[in-house]
Structures are given as C-alpha cells and as structure tokens.
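Could you join me in thinking about how sequence relates to backbone shape in a protein? Label the sequence line and the structure token line clearly, so we can match residues to local backbone shapes. Once you have written the record down, we can walk along the chain together.
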Amino acid sequence: MGTGSTLRFAAQTDEVTSLLRIVNLVRTREAVTRPEIGRLTGLGRGVVTQRIDHAIDMGFLEDADLAPSTGGRSARTLRFRAERGRIIVCALGAQHIHVGITDLEGNIVDDTHVVWQIAQGPQATLERAIVLVDELVTQHGERDVWAVVVGLPGPVDFATGRPVAPPIMPGWNEFDVRAPFEERYEAPVWVDNDVNMLVLTEREGRRAPHEDMIYMKIGSGVGSALLSRGRLHRGANGSAGDIGHVRIAGAEEQCRCGKTGCLEAVAGGWALIRDAERAIADGATSVLADRVAAGEPLQPEHITLAVRDGDALALKLVQTSARVAGDALAVLVNMFNPKTIIIGGAIASAGEVMLAEVRQRIYELSLPLATRDLVIDTSRKDQSAPISGGAELAIEELFETTFPRWFADARPSPALTRV
C-alpha cells in the first residue's frame, strides 16, 4: 500500500472510530451536547459537527431538547434513537416460556408469560416462543428486530449458542437454537444460561456497573452466575457458575444430571418436593400433605407459601436447602471474593428464613477478609427480570462487542453470532 493510500485508510479509520465513540457517548448519556462531546473526545468543533451530522443521517442520533442554561446560550442536546429497533428476549424455564420485546435501550415495550414444559423438546418449544413473539410484534407495530436473546435453564456453549447435555432438557443437546430465530427475524441471536440474564438485571437495578457479584438461583434446580467488575464471567466454554452440580459431602441422592450428591439434588426445588412427598408418605402432617391428598402436584412455590404460614415441614425443607447452598457459596466467597451475593428463584421467596441460614453458613465458613464488606440479599421481585437482563445482554453485545463490525450498515446482521 502506497503512502497516499495508507494516509487515506488511516483517516477513514479515525473517522469511523470517532463516529462510533460519539454514538456510544450519546447512547450511554455520558455526553449529550456538542460541547460535552468535544471535551470528552478532544475533537474540534467542526469535526464534532461533521461526525454528529453523519450519525444523524445514518439514523442513530437526533436533536432533542435544549440543555439547562449555565449562564450562556443553551446547547441543543442529542438523543440516541432507541425506538428505531427492537430487541426480542425469550426466557425459557423448566415450566414456562416468557417472551418480551424492548427498545434499543432495554425499555420493555411488552411481554407475556405462558406455562410450558421445556421437556416437550426444542422444536415445539421454539415454535411456541416465536408465535408468542410474533403476537407482541404485531400488536405493537412492525419495527426492525436488531437482536434476539434466548435464555435456557441449562449449560450453554455461548460461542455456538448450543445447549450442552442439559439435565432437564431432553432432546436439546447441541440443538441449533439460533437458526429458527435468525431465519424468522434476520437478526443476530445470542443464547445463554438464564441465570446470566438475571444477574445483569440485578447489576442494572442496583446501579452497580462494576460490581463483583454472585447470583444464585434456587428454583426447580440450582444455578449461579458470576460478574467480575460488572462483566459476565462465563469461563472457557460458558459453564462458569454452574454450581448446581458441585458435590456435597455426604450427599447420596441421585441428581437429574446422572451423578450422585449434587447440590441441586439436595437443595433444588424438585429435590425439596421429593423430600416433602417422602415425609408425607411417612405420615408427616403439613399443609403440603393436604395438597397431595387433594391430588394437586406439589410445586416449589407451594413450599415457600407454606413457610410463610409457619408450616414445620416446609420450614425444615427450606432450612436444609439454605444450609447446603450456604456451604457451596462459602467456597465461592473464599475463591472469588464478591462484593454482593444475590439469592433468587422460587425457594428464595421464602425470604428471611432462607436468607438467615445462608448468611450464617457463609460467615461461619468463609475467611473474615472475604466477608468484611459482603452484602447478601434476595433478588428484586420483578417478573420482567429475565426480559430486562436479556435486553442488557443484547445491548452489550451489539454496542460494545460487535458495533464496529456492523456500524456502516446501520443495522446488525445474523452473521455476527456465527463462529
């Protein structure tokens, strides 16, 4: 490449780099006026004006209200056009499908939730999810879909978007979850473990963008997610945080994964239901026994409701779950030294009964330095949490990881997520 060509290439690269930065400064509200952008970027007034005009022509930015006056002439603010695209989130659980659509800033436009058994398999489950999404999209008007996020209740290879030997998802192993959504919406698709989406919701809700955090979900099963300095830590293959299948000393129960003595086989909601049914068969009296006698299948939520009513059997079950969960978390606390631990899921809805036992075990078993500033709390009671977290994941991938690769086309493509 000749000297002239090299200089032109460098100039074009600098232009794109500064343009990207300006769009992101406005999107994140770090700078929303031309003078602020100039101060943060070091670019001259003329260059800032040129770049902003370009971003407006591409449809990313637009002029907004006047900024408050500081004594002189008020500057015109800029806004990121979050409404020009949609993010689709499908949060699949063991017994439900929760779908939603958001704008490009993660504001929820609408969502819906239906009962569904994920064991029905990937084909039927994803077809049902797409029907639900299409209903929302039709109801709120056609907009470009810029990203799709799918959360699964099992291990996911994040690079390929394929579940890997998920214990409660027969038929899902190595299934190409991305393909149906890419074909339907012509947008990039990211697939992740559902707990990773929940921890992002907690990060945003607590306004802790740089937090070291552990989120443990105790629902039907047990899972966890890790934030390191505010960023998801997935590990080499995406399985970091899969605490549900660590071995618990002395435990002999068979787990759904095929191994023996896993945390989930002792502390998970399905394990507590198993133990409740055994106790009832042995003659235990409980409001749970009344449900069983009435022919009503027990759910984890029934156990936490019974705890609130002071039911002795339910209390014993939840305290057992909390104790072994606390033991497992104590190992992570010593190793990872988080600032915050969040306990979520159906069993965590038992509230202080659960939380007190978890705290006691962690403080007993962890190093004093690791627990000196540690906060242990339950998750925020937000039914839309998976949708918010999925949108946050999409926004990070779109505007922080892959933005330079699709910026010139003014709209991302499915190729972004293919390896």
The chain has 15 helices and 14 strands.
